[in-house]
Amino acid sequence: MAVFTQMTKAQRTGLLFVILILFIDMLLYSLLIPIVPYFSETLKPSSTMMGILFSSYAVAMLLATPIFGPISDRLGRRAVLLVGLIGLAASTLLFAFSDTMALLITARFVQGIAAAATWPTALALLADLFPPKMRGAVMGTALTAISTGTLLGAPIGGWLFEISDHRMPFLAAAAFTVINIVLVFLFLKEEAARTASEKLAVGGFLRNPQVVFIAGIVLLAEVSLCLLEPTLPVFLTQKFSITPTAIGLLFAAMTLAYGLIAPVAGSLSNRFNPYKLMFAGIVLLAVFMPSLVWAGSLWQAGIAMALVGAGVGFTLSPTLPTLGSIIDQGGSGAYGTAYALFNMFHGIGMVAGPLAGGILTDLLPVSSAILVVAAAVLGFGIMLFLQLKASGAVRVSSSKGEMHSS
After folding, report:
1. CATH number of 6-194
2. Domain 203-406 in the same topology as domain 6-194
3. Highest mean pLDDT among 165-169, 329-333, 394-398
4. pLDDT, tens digit, 9 for 90 and up, residues 42-96
5. 14: Cβ contacts below 8 Å, ≥ 6 apart
6. What value does the mean pLDDT take over residues 149-159?
């Protein structure tokens, strides 16, 4: 894309480091998945303890994100990124040498705190480096790095586990993270000194109709995605009698489609009304979700998974540059605080999705629960868009991709 040929050396370096940081973050997040059976067999945890293990990441991220976003606005992106990467390395080493569930949960909690430092700060760094007309494409690329890390974490972890032992995936990931720390320390240049103007009135920001709409869209997309992770494998296994490897490939198709569509949707948000793109993504997601239930064969299920992943990617990608543009409207450079709020919406979805899925599948068959969720996503998406239109808070020039207050 033309936008990448227009980058300065500083912009290319910053984007490269953001890609590496977000990639390693999500690689570490999914690295645990293939090693769970080993811990289940050796430590004999209850289902409740396993639930706490997986939810502790999102809980820690929710608690720590409001702290790190504003800190990066005041102290600078480089320092907070280094703190987050050091936390990721420490949590990964703790995973490698954990021999109790308490230590595993602690490691996952520390990992969530580290992600609270890296995610919003990395996105804020992109907003610092790139003008609004370039942010859509680069933010979409950042989302692709996230999906790639998620996609590769489980198979890499499983392969390293098989050729060695349960510690090897974590030790290898820790080594990769340490290399990343050294590179950031040596080559990522600190931006100009922070200014007093880089503050955000969080209360007013959250009352902004545009931000309310984005928050609602992020929650709908994340809840839908995270709801499928614990419920869909059981449904597909029962329907098609498939192996865990096949389940993994189906989810890989969803993640791959997400990663491929994200930069496309990000680029489109520079040319068209991003709010209409987000709404279109939610409508597509709601339309595609029932195909998961109606798929009559394995290849149809794979196509359905890819369509759902593409729907989520198309929905979420325009939210990132649009949040940056809202900050620009206010004349503030407090991108760290803004993307910390995005991270919080993301974390709430990670917690609420599996919880909603568990409640619904206790009351309904999985197929019915997915149809109910699709209808709810469509209904709430329409309601959010109508509220945004009624507020008259924004209009977008599609020729320039610039937002203006009415």
Report:
1. 1.20.1250.20
2. yes
3. 165-169
4. 888 876 787 788 778 888 988 898 888 888 888 889 999 999 999 999 999 999 9
5. 125, 126, 128, 129, 188
6. 83
